[in-house]
Amino acid sequence: MEQVKKTDTHVIYKKHSGRYAVKDSKTKTWVNGDDKAAVLLAQGLITLSAAKAAAEPESEAEAGSEAAAE
Fold first, then answer.
1. Domain that includes residue 52, residue range
2. What is the secondary structure of 29-68 as a DSSP string?
3. How many CB atoms within 10 Å of residue 12?
4. What distance, in Å, lies between the first and last C-alpha atoms of the chain?
5. Which residues of the chain have pLDDT under 70?
6. Is the separation of the CB atoms in 30 and 15 below 8 Å?
7. Are 41 and 51 in contact (CB under 8 A)?
8. Distance, CA of 28 to chain centre
9. How far is CA 47 from CA 26, 44, 61, 67, in A?
């Protein structure tokens, strides 16, 4: 892994796969989940995309009408 950035609270590494790893400087533990995303977002290394809608009612209605037509 290659060290990308070092702050007062975290050390950010880039893995060979292109993903990032974040380690807490004080406790020497790896940071995961939302905390990791928040650190990477604050450093400008990633951008978060908007979440998709669970299910669109229009597409379900169309599928129901096609099934009824058969």
1. 2-69
2. -EE-HHHHHHHHHHTTS--PPPPPPS--HHHHHHHHHHHH
3. 21
4. 57
5. 52-70
6. no
7. no
8. 22
9. 26, 7, 34, 40
Most distant pair of Cα atoms in the chain: their distance: 65
Rounded Cα distance between 6 and 46, Å, is 16
Instruction: Please give the Cα distance from 34 to 64 (Å, whole number).
Output: 38
Q: What residue has token string 């990308």?
A: 4
CB atoms within 10 A of CB 10: 19
Domain total of the chain:
1
Taking the CA atoms of 55, 61, 65 and 66 in sequence, report the sign of the dihedral they define.
negative
Please report the pLDDT score of residue 61 as a whole number.
54
Which residue has tokens 């609270």? 9
Residues 6+ away with beta carbon under 8 Å from 25: 6, 7, 8, 9, 10, 11
